[in-house]
Amino acid sequence: MDERKVTPIQLAIGRLSDLMQAKIPEKINIAANTEEEKKLVKLINDLVDFSYETYNFILPLSKGDLSIKTPSTKNFFASPFKELHSRLQHLTWQAEQIASGNYNQRIDFMGDFSKAFNNMVEALDKNTRMLKEEIAERKKAEESLKEYSEKLEEANLTKDKFFSIISHDLRSPFTAIIGFANLLSQEYDSYDDYDRKEMISNIETSANSAFRLLENLLEWSRSQINGIEYKPENIEMSVVVVEIINILAQQAAGKNIKLLTEVKYNTKAYADPNMTKTILRNLISNAIKFTKIGGTVIISSKEIKPFLEISVKDSGIGIAKEDIEKIFKLGSTSGKRGTAGEKGTGLGLMLCKEFTEKNGGTISVESEHDKGTTMKFTLPLHKSRMQTNL
Amino acid sequence: MFKEERNTSLFQWSDLGDINKGRPNLGFMTDIRVYRLMQYTLRDVLIKRYGVDETNKLIIEAGYNAGVHFCRNLIDVKLPFNEFIAELQKSLRDLNVGILRLEKTDDSKKHFFISVAEDLDCSGLSVSDETVCNYDEGFFSGIMNEYTGKNYIVKEIDCWSTGDRVCRFEFKQAD
Questions:
Q1: Does A105 reach chain B within 8 Å, measured CB to CB?
Q2: How far is it between the farthest Cα atoms of chain B?
Q3: A233-255 pLDDT, tens per residue?
Q4: Are B68 and B88 in contact (CB under 8 A)?
Q5: Which chain B residues touch A89 with a CB distance below 8 Å?
Q6: Which of A30, A225, A325, B146 is most buried, with most CB under 10 Å away?
Q7: Is B163 close to A75, i.e. CB distance below 8 A?
Q8: ipTM
Q9: A119 torsion bin: left (phi>0), alpha (psi -120 to 50), beta (else)
């Protein structure tokens, strides 16, 4: 149609008709004669502009392109789509937040979609929490397994050391006993009284050493298989200390070592008496062993509520700094000989630690090289809830 | 206290008073029309006295102060950006100010757009050629300044009163 021969009104009707039939309209490009015609042409051309602008906005939006530029603020047709565009952009941001683990995001538009979306977020949240719990539980189980494996390894190591002690340390005194006994039995007449006495004394020392070792081994092996019953009671510590001093008096006298107790009468503790005696016997015996001839070993006590602390202080050779941490482990000091060449296994100190802890106390050591050592252990003063549970 | 002469802002959060004590029956909420009644009558007398441009500046400045104190007292400024926006969104929703949506942002957060639906200031106004949410412009600017310590210029680009269904604001960090 030749548009120059029609009026603006006819063209306006044509453009509106195009729009209604979903055809892409064009602007009116003819001169208007009257003011009304000019207004009409402007309105129709604005409408055409808005239609294009809206169409060009909605088309990419319908395909999910949110980077599209939004139409001008005066475009009434586009305004609901601009709101949709805004919501979809925010939805994108929310999805990003959810992806980064923020499950508090919820949406509130598009009816069933929002319901499904929010259900999905809730399910994701729930599943993630369950997964996290499962991972935490698995991690815990792995840690327990690792801990168990380490304990097993340690037990295995202890077993190896145990056999090493039996095969080596127990063998040595018996070798000496058998050797001297053979000499006395077969060549008794070729020795004088002094040599014979010396040999008998060596046999006695070796037998005592083997006996002490056997005693410790027996107690330790019983404790390992829970064979030692923990029977705490109120004990008078001064009496127990004197009893042990009497047992070890001969060992001390052999090195001219003074055994002194400062534990006063009426010093009480609530502990297993047999375990307490084993601890004291080992600590005092060790103190004698590592104290030079003519030295002193002092046993004292003080209350550090709710515990009684017992100290065994010697004026001996002390413990090297690097050895202090490992003295309570089996075999760690087995090579260390006393000042008179006495042998040790480290089993005694390990027993001391085990028995002290079984009584709810702790054991510690303070030592300075060449100046002496103080071994301290604590026992409960009274029966406590903790001990009831032991 | 409230009527002191001043050259700098003396407003503090405690000026809002103890609402629980003062309004045991009526509580925190009021009709939105009352809020608008105050804003538009105030705008009316300000324009009459100082003109349109000066009034816009005054309303933006008041909004800015409000934003600073709002952020300082109600939002956790230690939160990372996305969590901060989520908390701001929740606060504005809980206080019936509007439904805030972050549209898009660049990685540096120096330039981004937000929209506010059902805005306190304009939703439901008759359509004109003017964006009217100047108070919001200042409010968001104050919030961002308090949060980042940097100046943000916030401009409303779409408004209910210009024919849109949501208000859109462009945030730009000033150099």
A1: yes
A2: 48
A3: 999 999 999 988 888 887 788 88
A4: no
A5: 101-104, 113
A6: B146
A7: yes
A8: 0.77
A9: alpha
